């Protein structure tokens, strides 16, 4: 990465972190006041809260104020075109159902894309402590992308036998896809240490990055769910891919690079991949 590009990416990462921190404060204020469902999307259990909408509005406002020529893709708002070559990819609350139920596993996720490539990302685990836990992917002094947790470099877990790997996943909001996932999961579960369904794609990817999970896969996630978290995971030593899933949607697979091929093979044979 050139010095000029690295400097720009560093600025984008810094802006993403500043805005995500402000968004996290707003999310906590909504949580303290009480959370209710404002609307549903793909199904009755695919929910939106007033906090989702207010948080994305805040993020958009702050980004536009600092960089008015940038594009924005957000979960809760219309796509905003831009002319700068930079596009922001925003998930105001990833893990909305957890947020609704008061389960402390939800995050604000902001990624910066430059000329079509995701180059910086921030995921703040809002429910963990007063300041949350901050995961960041940004350039280091040599221009290579670093993965950081609260400013400290992180890396994926060391190699382990397949039967000793803890794997994260998630389930669709669509009943017919859930049935496919449940059948495949029954095939996969006996082959690994265990499966975790924590409820936030962005945080699951960060858990792979910090070594709390040995891998993660999920069908029907959106770009705003994984743009920042996947970059953080890759910077920490993981590999990610999107392939056609058995339910007709993209399947995201993430694992430490040393165990990535094995997780792909496991999930394919279990039935998560399209035939």
How would you describe this structure to a colleague?
It is built from 7 helices and 14 strands. With 275 residues, it is of the alpha+beta class. It folds into 2 domains: 3-153, Fructose-1,6-Bisphosphatase, subunit A, domain 1 (Fructose-1,6-Bisphosphatase, Chain A, domain 1, 2-Layer Sandwich); 162-270, D-Maltodextrin-Binding Protein, domain 2. The strands form 3 sheets. Strands 3-4-5-6-7-8-9 form a 7-stranded mixed sheet, sandwiched between helices. β8 (145-149) and β9 form a beta hairpin. It is globular. The model has no long low-confidence stretch (mean pLDDT 94).
Nutshell version of this structure?
The protein is of the alpha+beta class. 37% of the residues lie in helices and 28% in strands.
Helices and strands in order:
Layout: H1 3-33, E1 37-40, E2 47-49, H2 50-66, E3 71-74, E4 86-94, H3 96-101, E5 107-114, E6 117-125, E7 133-139, E8 145-149, E9 152-153, E10 166-169, H4 175-188, E11 194-196, H5 201-210, E12 215-219, H6 223-235, E13 238-244, E14 250-256, H7 260-270
């Amino acid at each position: 990465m050139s010095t000029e590009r690295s400097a720009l990416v560093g600025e984008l990462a810094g802006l993403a972190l500043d805005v995500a921190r402000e968004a996290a404060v707003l999310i906590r204020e909504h949580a303290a006041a009480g959370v209710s469902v404002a609307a549903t999307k793909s199904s009755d259990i695919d929910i939106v809260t007033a906090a989702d909408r207010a948080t994305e509005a805040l993020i958009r406002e702050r980004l536009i104020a600092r960089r008015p020529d940038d594009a924005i893709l957000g979960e809760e708002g219309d796509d905003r075109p831009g002319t700068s070559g930079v596009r922001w990819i925003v998930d105001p609350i990833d893990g909305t159902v957890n947020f609704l139920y008061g389960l402390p596993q939800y995050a604000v996720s902001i990624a910066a894309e430059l000329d079509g490539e995701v180059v910086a990302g921030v995921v703040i685990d809002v429910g963990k402590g007063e300041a949350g836990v901050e995961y960041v992917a940004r350039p280091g002094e040599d221009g290579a992308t670093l993965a950081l947790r609260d400013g400290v470099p992180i890396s994926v877990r060391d190699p382990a036998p397949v039967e000793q790997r803890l794997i994260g996943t998630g389930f669709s909001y669509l009943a017919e896809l859930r049935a496919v996932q449940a059948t495949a999961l029954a095939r996969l579960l006996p082959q690994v240490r265990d499966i975790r369904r924590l409820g936030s794609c962005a945080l699951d990817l960060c858990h792979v990055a910090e070594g709390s999970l040995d891998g993660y896969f999920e069908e029907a996630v959106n770009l705003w769910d994984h743009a920042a978290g996947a970059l953080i995971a890759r910077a920490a030593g993981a590999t990610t891919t999107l392939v056609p899933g058995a339910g007709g949607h993209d399947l995201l697979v993430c694992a430490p690079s040393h165990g990535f091929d094995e997780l792909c093979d496991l999930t394919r044979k279990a039935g998560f991949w399209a035939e």
